[in-house]
């Protein structure tokens, strides 16, 4: 039983977990930062923790360095109740690091230490296939597609999950700084597009993938494919648009005072997957889908009100109180 009173399907999240180093002062460049605080991150890991924070069940599959940071990250997953049997440790490579700063103009600036980092070295034969086969929902991004051998492990894990009947969930989570070129990023992100049952993109990712400056229904619908059950386009404080074969629409955002948007998209995804893992049929019923998106919007909103991604992920009761308070 979960904290919200239902037995819960397993969400398995695949990909990278790393440490973000965030400046102690805001609105400065990396070079100007007087010091840094370490913050655990990595979109797939954030999603896994978002699920357990809401009372769902999740597992993380990926590779960390056999170093202090790697064991610290594995410990954080366990502390939040995420199943950690899919984690491998690499003796030769370090856990990935990212220096992230919010510049005075509000834009994030990234500098990654991955040459190569442990997450890039996950091999197909290291996958915990039993864990993957037990997933109701298998979730992944695109960073794990950038280099071998992780790319092969990613493709194999997707196939194993699909063969076992899991719903495949994809959030490209574009980080251009990690790709060799813009063209390669677009091509590889799209290379697995038609395998996903559910895809979530941000407004900026929609523009990048379509090559259009328009964030409208026609632009979003150009990304639909025959197997896709649900496409979500998140619009920050403007809420979220949803598209299925039979209906489409828009759900308003909750208005909060945002401090740090890091992890808001992962919180949104985790909340939605938590609901879908319990009952996949809600994708086909617009009223219930809208309710689930509203819940996910509330999760994303709460996450922006605190610094950091993981410490800001809300509990089920926090989400309910925001939803009640705004009625």
TrEMBL record:
PROSITE patterns: PFKB_KINASES_1, PFKB_KINASES_2. Keywords: ATP-binding, Carbohydrate metabolism, Kinase, Nucleotide-binding, Transferase. Its EC number is 2.7.1.4. Pfam families: PfkB. InterPro entries: Carboh/pur_kinase_PfkB_CS (IPR002173), PfkB_Carbo_kinase (IPR050306), PfkB_dom (IPR011611), Ribo/fructo_kinase (IPR002139), Ribokinase-like (IPR029056). Pathway: Glycan biosynthesis; starch biosynthesis. This is fructokinase. It comes from Trapa incisa.
């Amino acid at each position: 039983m979960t904290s919200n009173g239902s037995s819960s399907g397993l969400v398995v999240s695949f990909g990278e977990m790393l440490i973000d180093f965030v400046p102690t002062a805001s609105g400065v460049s990396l070079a100007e930062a007087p010091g840094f605080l370490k913050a655990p991150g990595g979109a797939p890991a954030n999603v896994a923790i978002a699920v357990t924070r809401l009372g769902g069940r999740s597992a993380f599959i990926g590779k960390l360095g056999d170093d202090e940071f790697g064991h610290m990250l594995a410990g954080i997953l366990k502390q939040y109740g995420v199943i950690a049997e899919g984690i491998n440790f690499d003796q030769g490579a370090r856990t990935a690091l990212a220096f992230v700063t919010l510049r005075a103009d509000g834009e994030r600036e990234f500098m990654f230490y991955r040459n190569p980092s442990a997450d890039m070295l996950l091999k197909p034969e290291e996958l915990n296939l039993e864990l993957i086969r037990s997933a109701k929902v298998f979730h992944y991004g695109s960073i794990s597609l950038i280099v071998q051998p992780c790319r092969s492990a990613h493709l194999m894990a997707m196939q194993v999950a699909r063969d076992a009947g899991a719903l495949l969930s994809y959030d490209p989570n574009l980080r251009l700084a990690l790709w060799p070129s813009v063209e390669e990023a677009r091509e590889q992100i799209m290379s697995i597009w038609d395998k996903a049952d559910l895809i979530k993109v941000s407004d900026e990712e929609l523009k990048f993938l379509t090559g259009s400056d328009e964030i409208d229904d026609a632009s979003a619908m150009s990304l639909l494919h025959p197997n896709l059950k649900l496409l979500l386009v998140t619009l920050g404080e403007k809420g979220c648009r949803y598209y299925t074969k039979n209906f489409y629409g828009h759900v308003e955002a909750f208005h909060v005072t945002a401090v740090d948007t890091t992890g808001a998209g992962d919180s949104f995804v985790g909340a939605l997957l938590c609901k879908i893992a319990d009952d996949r049929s809600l994708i086909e019923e617009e009223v219930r889908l809208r309710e689930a998106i509203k819940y996910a919007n509330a999760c994303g909103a709460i996450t922006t009100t605190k610094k950091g991604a993981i410490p800001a992920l809300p509990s089920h009761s926090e989400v309910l109180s925001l939803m009640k308070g705004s009625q």
